[in-house]
Amino acid sequence: MDDPSGWSLTESDPQVFTQLLKDLGVKGLQVDDLYSLDEATLSTLKPIHALIFLFKYVEPSANDAEGSSGVEVDPLDNGVWFANQVINNSCGTVAALNAVMNIQPEPSQFDGESIELGEELGNLREFGTGMESSDIGYLVSSSPTIREVHNSFSKSSPFSMDPSAFPEREKEDAYHFIAYLPVNGILYELDGLRKNPIMHAPIEGDWLENARETIEGRIGTYPSGSLMFNLLCIRSTPLPRLQRLLNDPSTPAQEKYQIQDQLEHELNKTKRGQMENTLRRNNLLPVVFQLFKALGESGLANKAVEDARAKGKERKERRAAKGDIEED
Q1: What is the rounded distance in angstroms from the CA atom of residue 161 to the CA atom of residue 153?
Q2: Looking at residue 110, what DSSP letter applies?
Q3: What is the pLDDT of residues 227-246, one digit of tens each?
Q4: Model confidence, pTM
Q5: H-helix or E-strand containing 93?
Q6: Nearest-CA neighbor of 99 among 122, 83, 118?
Q7: pLDDT digits (tens, 9 = 90+) for 253-268
Q8: What number of H helices and E strands is found in the chain?
Q9: Which CATH number fits domain 14-237: 3.40.50.10330, 3.40.50.1110, 3.40.532.10, 1.10.8.60?
Q10: DSSP letter at 63?
Q11: What integer pLDDT is reported at residue 67 of this predicted model?
């Protein structure tokens, strides 16, 4: 069922977040899955500017710090851009905005390698200067552009189920997005459901070391073996840099082989992401229904099924002849 707020749930997929930022006008940044916080994994993705953490949400009690080891601080006193989440289902977009609005723009002499907020978010930052976090949250939720981009990844459904028809159905678990990133030399946790940002330890060296300890500590508050988390990183878009290095005559030939592999990986990932986002934004069920309806009305449905079975049988026989037998 649709949420009355008019905002749809956000899928925890890096391609969704990358396209969301791109559609909002952000340049020079992309989002990737982060499967580990070890140095070997992080080194292949750097520079990393922020982390987006998805976890199973548990309603905090009066004495429960919800696994946080930091201290809530006033964002206006600490130079942190922070929006409260005031609309249901908007936590993914709010977390992404809380992250990128605190990432400093970086000009570059190389084409495509600058980090820019873009006009929409630049105006939002300027207009919200000096406002309380809740007011900025209402600015975000009332923006037609942000809401339209956020909802562009939701699929419409031809089915509508009455929840009263499933009285014993358990309530689905709620999941929540928050952001971690350095601001003015300090690691912050930006959770839109909290009144203020959470200040963690000052950063000494690589900020990701502090983030690793903080996130692992939070995960440690859940039962052992829990798989209720997902971690994304906001990083500099690598494609322009890789293409530049590959075309640079001064790049050693040995390094070019590695760069070429990385470039092909990023190009394939981008192409796959574009296709996946196209499928997300287009509901194909009506087309499928019409195809089945047309087959039925033309009397070709049975023939289509029999043809498919015959082709499947032929493929299985060819594999068997080659000794490549599938197990049932």
Answers
A1: 21
A2: S
A3: 678 999 999 999 999 999 99
A4: 0.79
A5: helix 91-100
A6: 83
A7: 999 999 999 999 999 9
A8: 12, 7
A9: 3.40.532.10
A10: T
A11: 46
Q: How confident is the model at residue 62 (pLDDT cuts 50, 70, 90)?
A: very low
Residue 159's Cα: distance from chain center in Å?
26
From 91, 150, 200, 233, the catalytic residue: 91
Among 226, 231, 234, 263, which residue's Cα sits nearest to residue 246?
Answer: 263
- Selection from 90, 173, 210, 105 nearest residue 139 by Cα: 90
pLDDT tens by residue, 159-190:
444 545 545 544 556 889 999 999 999 999 99
Please state the rounded mean pLDDT for residues 207-218: 92
pLDDT in tens, 108-150: 999 999 999 999 999 999 999 999 999 999 999 999 999 999 9
C-alpha–C-alpha distance, residues 123 and 150, integer Å: 18
| Structure tokens that stand for 170 in this block | 């358990």
Active-site residue identified among 49, 150, 176, 200: 176
DSSP 251: S
Judge whether 232 and 17 are in contact, CB under 8 Å: yes
The residue with tokens 């009305």 is: 297
* Over residues 211-223, mean pLDDT: 87
Judge whether 91 counts as a catalytic residue: yes
Question: Which stretches within 172-248 are classed as H helix?
Answer: 207-219, 239-247
How far lies 37's CA from each of 92, 201, 227, 229, 232, in Å?
Answer: 21, 18, 16, 13, 11
Determine whether 120 is exposed, middle or buried from the number of CB atoms within 10 Å of its CB (0-12, 13-18, 19+).
middle
